[in-house]
Each structure stands twice: as structure tokens, then as C-alpha cells.
Design a protein that fits this description.
about 475 residues, alpha/beta, 8-stranded parallel beta barrel, 3-stranded mixed beta sheet, 18 helices, 13 strands, globular
Length: about 475
């Protein structure tokens, strides 16, 4: 078996045959996220808090079992049964180095990443390695695991040096693995100057290519993989590279301005948003990969009788996006494979030890809207609105839209800082206290809640994905 390559606008095999990659991201696994598994704040915060409550040994045991159960052979077999052929594997740099011991490789970091890559290969599934969290935080959001809204990765050269070093180590380890479709070196950068991201990509390209001349690279656009407008002629320096957009639609989220019914105007908006993200590539005949996209879904415990109707709208958004992608023969990776019931193709049963243990806490999290992703702030909007009003009243309009505007509106920024960072910080210890006094057997059972056998399937989503797994338009 040979490496996949980027040739013009296509991904091809060794014979030049086009390979269209269709799959999902394994979010919440080696880069945990609050809305995916139900904790507040950032992964580094809950890991520290759990170690304080149960001790370092038990904490490490729990998180290792969590990683083990989250993706097993049963998951890979199910994924393949849907006709999907590629999984994007997000991971946190902290699995491979410690902040207090930088540039010293932790070989145990490869334990679960190797295991899942091999499981996927066994079932004929390609993988794409995604550095989702970089030292200092490469973007302004929770999934950069920095605990702040400042993306300090762009402000400190040493953070950038460490990422170059890490990709050199990863390239050494995986250079001969042909089931890896490629490397996604930096998830969703938010460089406010729009130029440093290109400098970092130049460095990463040279570092990886000096060790691994074979694997394709998938480079995200700036500002959450939405903006290539400052990339200029950078592509002329790079070979075997695809360019990654993240094509989320507001129609797939609670903040949608209107109910989605698939009108001509709404479908035009879907198409226009997508085309704008890939415009730079289309003007230059470059390969596009949609590394993240997909709606979130209503849950009966929160949306009640409206759940089914809301989700039918979300499935329509999904199908209309896929109709666009199919015409363009687009490779994509939907977000995401597994979670606790908000967006995943499979999700942890409400009857499991984890979900019963955290039932009341999860309801509190939802009511307080302390996760940014798909937040419904209707229960607390009146609390934060005076702060928004104050800023609007006291700050000149031309100074209100701080980067990463327009992706972040003023209300989003207040929500990030006041709810998702400040308020969530006060709930981290409460989350950890749920584990106090638990034995290893109990911790194992809680972690096992995330195993495939303890998950339910979002059948509506999975049927649409299966029907579209190999559906593409005529070759251009």
C-alpha cells in the first residue's frame, strides 16, 4: 500500500485514482472538550482538580481507561459499516510533552494514538492526525486548552518552536505508516495579524518535509479555518498540501436566526458561506478538505416536545450541505463521532454510571450556559445583558468589534469571558468532587460509560451519512 497524495484539486492513490475521504472527527478523546463529555472549563483544569480529589494515581487510571474505552475495535467496525473511510484524530500536545519539561518526549503519548490508528487500518479506515491544542493556545477558544481568550501561541516564539519540535517527533514516528492520510498540523488558528500563521506553516512544512517527504499536509485557514485571504502565493512553496475549511452553518445551531426549511434563500446562504471559505483555493486550483462541519441536536431533557421537530430541521441542514459537497466531490470530516448526546453519531446512554452520576450537574451546566458550543443562554441572558449594554454605551462602535470578529460578535465575547471562562472556573471543583471516595472499580465503570456497548446511535444522522458516504457528482 502506498501513500495518498494531493494532486491538483484531488487526493489520489499511487495510481492517480481519486480517493474521496468521508468520515468524522474523534473529538473529545485525546483532546477532551467540555460539551463533548460534560465537564466545565478546560481539560487541564479538570485533570488537575481530579488529581487533587482522588490522588494522582487514581486520576491517571481514570483518564487512561477513558481513552481506552472511548474508541475500540467495536467503534471502528461500526464506523466502517456506514461506508465511511477516514477518521480525523485530534490530540492535545500535553500527551507528548509537559509545560514544565518542554521538548522532552513522553513516549506513552503514542500508546492510544498508535492503538487507534492501527484499529482503523485493520478496518480499512484512513486517519488524519490533528494537533488540536498547541502550547499557549493557537486560538481563542476552550478547545485550545489554555484557559484564556488570548491565543498566546502567536505571541511567544518558544511556543511555536515547541510545535515544530513536536511535529518532527511525530513525523519520525509515523513516516512509514501509509494508513495515515496526512497531518493536520494546527487546528483552527486565530492569528490576529494574519501573517504569523503563514510563517508558522512555512516552518512546519520545512520541518516535517525534512523527515517525512511522503504524507500530505492539511493546512487550516486562519480564524477558525475560515479565512485564506492573506495566504497570497504561499501555496507555491508547498507541495502535496490540501487546505482545510471548517464549514459550520448557523442554521444548525440554537442561535439560528430562523427555522430552517430549505428555502432558496437559505440554501443560497449555505452555498455562499461555503464558497467564500474556499475561494482562495478555487482561484488557484488547489485541493479543499472540509475538516469540520455539522449541526448540533436537541435533547428531550432540555427541549422537551420540540426535540423531534428541531432535529428534523437540523437533518435538513445536514442534507442540504451534503448536496453541495457531493456536487464538488468534496472530502469531509463531520464533527463528531462520539459525545454525551449533543452532536455525536453515537452518544453515551443516560443510564450509564457517568451520566447518572452527573445528571444534575449537566442540567446545571446547561441552565447556566457555561459551554460556548451551541449554548442556549435563555435562562441567564438577563444576567449578562447589562454588561453588553454597558460596553455598547461606553465604547465607541468602531472599537467594539475585537478580533476574532466577525466570527465573535460582542455578545459572544462577553459570553466567552463571563460564562465560559469565569463562571465555569468556579464549577471545576464541583465536577471533580463527584469522584471523591470512588474505588478503582467504580472509576473503571464510570470510564466504561463511554464504550461503544454503552452508547446509543443517532440513527437519523447515521443514515444520512451512510447514504452520502460515496455519493458524488460527475468528475469535472
Amino acid at each position: 500500500m502506498a501513500y495518498l497524495k494531493v494532486s491538483g484539486t484531488k487526493i489520489v492513490d499511487q495510481n492517480g485514482k481519486e480517493i474521496i475521504l468521508r468520515g468524522a472527527g474523534l473529538g473529545g478523546w485525546m483532546n477532551m472538550e467540555n460539551f463533548i463529555s460534560g465537564y466545565p472549563g478546560c481539560e487541564f483544569q479538570i485533570r488537575a482538580a481530579l488529581a487533587d480529589v482522588v490522588g494522582k494515581e487514581k486520576s491517571e487510571f481514570f483518564f487512561d481507561k477513558f481513552l481506552e474505552y472511548f474508541f475500540t475495535d467495536a467503534d471502528a467496525a461500526f464506523f466502517k459499516s456506514l461506508g465511511l473511510n477516514c477518521i480525523r484524530l485530534p490530540f492535545n500536545y500535553r500527551h507528548f510533552e509537559d509545560d514544565m519539561n518542554p521538548r522532552v518526549l513522553k513516549p506513552e503519548g503514542f500508546k492510544h494514538l498508535d492503538r487507534v490508528i492501527d484499529l482503523c487500518a485493520k478496518h480499512g479506515i484512513y486517519t488524519i492526525l490533528d494537533l488540536h491544542t498547541a502550547p499557549g493556545g493557537q486560538n481563542t477558544d476552550w478547545h485550545a486548552d489554555a484557559g484564556t481568550h488570548i491565543a498566546n501561541f502567536w505571541n511567544h516564539k518558544d511556543f511555536q518552536d515547541r510545535v515544530v519540535w513536536l511535529w518532527e517527533e511525530l513525523a519520525k514516528h509515523y513516516v512509514n505508516n501509509t494508513w495515515i492520510a496526512g497531518y493536520n498540523p494546527l487546528n483552527e488558528p486565530t492569528d490576529p495579524y494574519h501573517t504569523r500563521v503563514i510563517d508558522v506553516y512555512d516552518r512546519l512544512y520545512e520541518a516535517i518535509r525534512s523527515i517525512d517527504p511522503h504524507h500530505a499536509l492539511f493546512l487550516d485557514g486562519n480564524t477558525f479555518a475560515s479565512d485564506f485571504s492573506h495566504f497570497g502565493d504561499a501555496h507555491k512553496r508547498w507541495e502535496n498540501v490540501a487546505y482545510s475549511i471548517h464549514d459550520y452553518s448557523v442554521f444548525g445551531f440554537p442561535a439560528s436566526p430562523e427555522a430552517y426549511t430549505g428555502t432558496d434563500t437559505q440554501r443560497h446562504r449555505l452555498r455562499r458561506s461555503y464558497e467564500k471559505k474556499r475561494q482562495w483555493m478555487d482561484e488557484r486550483g488547489l485541493c479543499v478538505w472540509n475538516g469540520e462541519w455539522g449541526p448540533v441536536y436537541a435533547r428531550k431533557e432540555y427541549e422537551g416536545d420540540r426535540t423531534e421537530a428541531i432535529n428534523e430541521q437540523r437533518y435538513r441542514v445536514l442534507q442540504d450541505q451534503l448536496s453541495i459537497y457531493n456536487k464538488d466531490r468534496l472530502s469531509w470530516s463531520i464533527w463528531l463521532y462520539k459525545d454525551i448526546g449533543f452532536q455525536g453519531m453515537v452518544y453515551v446512554s443516560r443510564e450509564t454510571p457517568y451520566m447518572t452520576l452527573f445528571k444534575d450537574f449537566l442540567a446545571k451546566k446547561h441552565r447556566l450556559a457555561i459551554d460556548a458550543w451551541g449554548a442556549d443562554d435563555s435562562h441567564v441572558r438577563d444576567i449578562y445583558q447589562p454588561l453588553i449594554d454597558l460596553i455598547k454605551r461606553e465604547v465607541k462602535p468602531e472599537h467594539q468589534n475585537l478580533y476574532p470578529a466577525p466570527v465573535w460578535k460582542l455578545s459572544d465575547r462577553v459570553g466567552r469571558l463571563a460564562r465560559n471562562i469565569l463562571l465555569s472556573e468556579f464549577l471545576v471543583q464541583e465536577w471533580a468532587e463527584h469522584f471523591r471516595g470512588k474505588s478503582e472499580e467504580e472509576l473503571d465503570a464510570i470510564a466504561k460509560s463511554f464504550s461503544f456497548d454503552n452508547c446509543l446511535h443517532r440513527d437519523g444522522l447515521n443514515k444520512i451519512l451512510m447514504d452520502n458516504a460515496t455519493l458524488v457528482g460527475q468528475e469535472k
